[in-house]
Q: What sequence folds into this?
């Protein structure tokens, strides 16, 4: 079904250019002629995919285009698939992934709740089966052989669950991605440069531990050995967060996500997690508490922290709940946001060459591994205090801004 056209051709041209910029920026090695780039898209983003396809051909790379199954197909899969179908891997898929140089995903869901009554165990089983393919991509990224990015294209379902009109929702996307700018790519380059200065400052501080305090949060997170802050790297459009994958073993205290989220078709609100010795020992939620418990039991690493993130309001123009993690984890508003992710960590926050990290080294350094990665966002006014290796305490974030 044709969706209302709220993004003009100019917006879509700009969107495609920014996505290609993001993919190129996310790869440490430059793209070259005959590289392979996969473009996956949901049906409502078809026109954006068409424009993107033309731009990639003009770059003399080989675009591989795949439309993602519809929400009806996805629901049918989880209600009907037998055990073998649930974990089936398409022949040749690993060969493709081992040769990919770029990946762009145009997320445009037609439904957010079509999986709400599906057993989370079935969804987790399918996710675990796909993990080897994700691992291939992570390895290629670590070697500088692959760059990836993604975006969220506005749909009526997303607007409805965010309780916004579709026009208001689309306006947030246009504003957040700077699609009305005279030259959006130059605007993103400026954001990239400013973020680089912030990351250099954070990484110069030699931090040992973070203390996050807000109305509902009292959480301590260990920085970990050989870590660096990263972010605004081109991986997500938009993305304004700076983040780190900490040593999961040093997480202590209480974290509350005051922003709701949709996951696997389930609406979850008011998540409260209590950590002891790095592991969630108690969880609750105002809505979806049982679903939260099942997610945290997905595998050994699901109840541990994989990411700690902060967003500065000087970058982000997002000021509405969007019912979409990509936007909600980058919420600006009045006080910015912090979020943690339970589950897998990002090895590119290692301050050396991530490609040299063995599984044993990851474990020794406290990088978490899981099939889960779930961002839980807090938008309250907060203070983040860093304890340096010297014992000195420095406030690094307050009033929605880094203090640099």
A:
């Amino acid at each position: 079904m044709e969706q209302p056209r709220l993004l003009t051709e100019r917006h879509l041209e700009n969107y495609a250019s920014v996505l290609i910029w993001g993919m190129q920026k996310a790869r440490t090695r430059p793209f070259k002629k005959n590289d392979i780039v996969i473009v996956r898209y949901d049906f409502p983003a078809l026109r954006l995919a068409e424009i993107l396809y033309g731009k990639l051909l003009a770059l003399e790379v080989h675009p591989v285009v795949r439309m993602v199954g519809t929400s009806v197909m996805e629901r049918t899969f989880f209600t009907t698939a037998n055990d073998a179908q649930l974990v089936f891997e398409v022949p040749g898929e690993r060969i493709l992934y081992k040769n990919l140089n770029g990946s762009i995903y145009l997320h445009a869901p037609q439904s957010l709740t079509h999986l709400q009554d599906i057993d989370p165990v079935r969804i987790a089983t399918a996710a675990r089966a796909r993990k080897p393919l994700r691992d291939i991509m992570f390895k290629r990224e670590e070697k500088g052989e692959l760059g990836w990015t993604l975006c969220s294209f506005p749909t009526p379902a997303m607007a409805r669950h965010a309780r916004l009109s579709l026009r208001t929702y689309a306006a947030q996307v246009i504003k957040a991605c700077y699609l009305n700018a005279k030259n959006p790519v130059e605007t993103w380059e400026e954001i990239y440069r400013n973020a680089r200065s912030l990351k250099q400052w954070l990484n110069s501080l030699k931090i040992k531990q973070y203390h996050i305090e807000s109305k509902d949060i009292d959480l301590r997170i260990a920085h970990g050995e050989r870590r660096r802050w990263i972010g605004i790297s081109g991986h997500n459009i938009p993305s304004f967060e700076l983040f780190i994958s900490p040593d999961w073993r040093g997480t202590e205290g209480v974290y509350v996500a005051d922003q709701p989220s949709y996951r696997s078709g389930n609406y979850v609100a008011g998540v409260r997690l209590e950590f002891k010795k790095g592991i969630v020992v108690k969880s609750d939620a105002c809505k979806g508490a049982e679903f939260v418990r099942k997610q945290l039991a997905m595998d050994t690493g699901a109840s541990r922290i994989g990411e700690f993130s902060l967003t500065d309001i000087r970058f982000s123009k997002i000021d509405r709940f969007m019912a979409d993690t990509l936007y909600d984890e980058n919420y600006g508003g009045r006080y910015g946001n912090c979020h943690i992710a339970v589950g897998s960590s990002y090895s590119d926050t290692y301050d050396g060459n991530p490609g040299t990290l063995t599984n044993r080294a990851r474990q020794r350094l406290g990088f978490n591994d899981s099939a889960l990665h779930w961002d839980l966002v807090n938008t309250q006014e907060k203070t983040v205090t860093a304890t340096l290796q010297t014992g000195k305490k420095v406030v690094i974030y307050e009033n929605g801004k880094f203090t640099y």
Notes: The chain has twelve helices and 20 strands. The first strand starts at residue 36 and ends at 41.
